[in-house]
Amino acid sequence: MSLAVTSMVALAFLIPLALVVRQLADDRAMTDAERQATAVTPVLAITADPAVVEQALASTSGRVAVHLADGSVVGDPRATADQLKAAQQQRRAFTASLPDGRVHLQPVLLDRGRVAVVEVFVPDGELSRGVAPAWLALSGVAISLVLVSVLVADRLGARVVRAAGALADGARRMEEGDLAARVTPSGPPELAEAGGAFNRMADRIGQLMASEREVLADLSHRLRTPLTALRLDSEALGADTSATRVRRAVNVLEREVTELIRAARRELDHPEGDRCDAAQVVHDRLVFWSALADDQLRRWTLRGTERTAIVPLTRSDLAAAMDVVLGNVFRHTPEGVEFVVALYHMPDQVVIVIEDGGPGIPDLEAALRRGSSSAGSTGLGLDIARRAAESAGGSLVVDRGPLGGTRVQLRVPTLLEA
After folding, report:
1. Which has the higher per-residue pLDDT, 222 or 319?
2. Does pTM top 0.70 for this prediction?
3. Which of 78, 169, 231, 349 could form a disulfide with 121 if both were Cys (CB 3.0 to 4.6 A apart)?
C-alpha cells in the first residue's frame, strides 16, 4: 500500500515537472533564437551590403541567415519559400516547424517599403537540450522517495505484524489448553490494548476454572457425610450375599468420590493429568454397574480389558462417559436384557463398545442432539459422551448392534499400548 500510494504521489508530481522542464528548454531555445535575430536587425537598418551583413553574422551561432530585399541570401537558409513569403507579406515575426527543428522568421522593414527577413534555425537537439538529465534527476528523486517510504512502512508494518503474531500465538496456545499462555502487550495502542485484554481474559478464565474445580471438589466432599452414613448402615446389614453386594457398591462409590475430588484439584497443565488407562476405567465401571445388573438379572459380558490402553482423557471424563451410556442401558431397556461391554485395540485408536439387546433407539440422529430424547429423559447423556470423545480428538457412533438393540462406539485416539 505504501508503495502504491507513494508511487502515485511521485507520478502526480513527476509528470507535470517533466513537462514543465521540456517546455522550459523549448522556450529557452526559441528565446535565444529571437535574441540572435534581434541582434542582426540594426545592421540591416544601416546597410544592405552582403559583405557587411555576412560579417555581422560571424558573431552568431552560425544558424542565422538573412534574406535581403533584393532577393539575395546571406548564410545558410532553411526556411521554405512559402514560410519566407508569409513572413514578407505578414510583416510580423513567427516560428515555423521543419522536419529537423524549428525556424524563427523575423521581418525587418526597410526604406521604400522593402522587407528583409532574418531567419534563425533551431534544431531539435537544441530544443531538448538538458531535458534528459533533468528527467533522470527527477526520476532518481522519485525512486528514492518511494524506496524510503517503503522502508519506513516496512519497519512500521513489522512492528504491527510482530505484535499481532504474538497475540495470535498466545490465542493459539490458549486454544490448545495452555491456560498459562500470556502475551507481552506491544505494537500500536490498539494492539497493545488487545494484548492487555487477552492477558486479563486468560487470568479470568484461570480463576473461573479454579473456582469451578474448587466448587466441584467441595460438592464431592459433601458427599462423604451421607456416604459415611451409608457405609455404617451397610455394615449393619449382616453377612448375606445382598449385604456383601451393597458394601461392595459402597466401597466403589467411595473410591469414585475420592477420584472425583482428586481430579477436580488436579492442575490442568500436569503432564499426566489428561490421560488414563481406558482398560482399567472400563473394567472399574463395569464392576460398579455389575451389582445393579445382577439385581435385575441382566447377563453381561466384558471383553478386551486385559491390555493397557492409554488414551488422552482424564479418568473422570472417561468414567462419566461410560456411566451415562451404561445408565441409559439400565433406564431404557427392560430388566433382564443383556448387554456387552468390549474394548478393541486398534493401531491408532481405542474403541469402547457398549451394546444391548433392547428395543434400540428409534431416531439415532436425534439421539445425538443435545437436549433431545425420545424416552422422556434430559437428552444430555449421549451428548456428554460425544463431547468427551471429541475433546480427545475422537468421535461417538450410535447404531444398531448384533444383539438387536443400541450399540454405542466411543472412539478415542490411543497414546500407548502395552
Report:
1. 319
2. no
3. 78
* In the block, residue with C-alpha cell 502395552: 418
Report DSSP state, residue 376: S
Q: Give the separation between CA 40 and CA 116, rounded to whole angstroms.
A: 11
Same domain, 86 and 175: no
263: in domain: no
Distance CA 173, CA 362 (A): 42
In degrees rounded to 5, what are phi and psi of residue 130? 85, -5
Q: How many percent of the chain have pLDDT more than 90?
A: 13
pLDDT of 265 above 60? no
Instruction: Give the integer Cα–Cα distance in Å for 410 and 224.
Output: 31
Amino acid at 210: A
DSSP lists the bridge partners of residue 74 as 66
**What's the whole-number mean pLDDT along residues 111-122?**
86
Q: Considering only CA atoms, which of 60, 90, 62, 59 is closest in space to residue 77?
A: 62
* 313 and 350 co-located in one domain: yes
Rounded to whole angstroms, how far apart are CA atoms 43 and 59? 12
244 vs 24, which has greater pLDDT?
24
8 Å CB contact between 69 and 109: no
Decide if 251 is inside a domain: no
Domain assignment present for residue 180? The answer is: yes
Q: What is the mean pLDDT of residues 9-30?
A: 87
Domain of residue 26, residue span? 2-129
| Mean pLDDT of the 86-107 span | 88
Q: How far apart are CA 176 and CA 138, in angstroms?
A: 55
Residue 75: pLDDT above 70? yes
Query: Same structural domain for residues 124 and 144?
Result: no
More confident residue, 38 or 410: 410
322 CA to centre of own chain: 40
Question: Does some domain include residue 220?
Answer: no
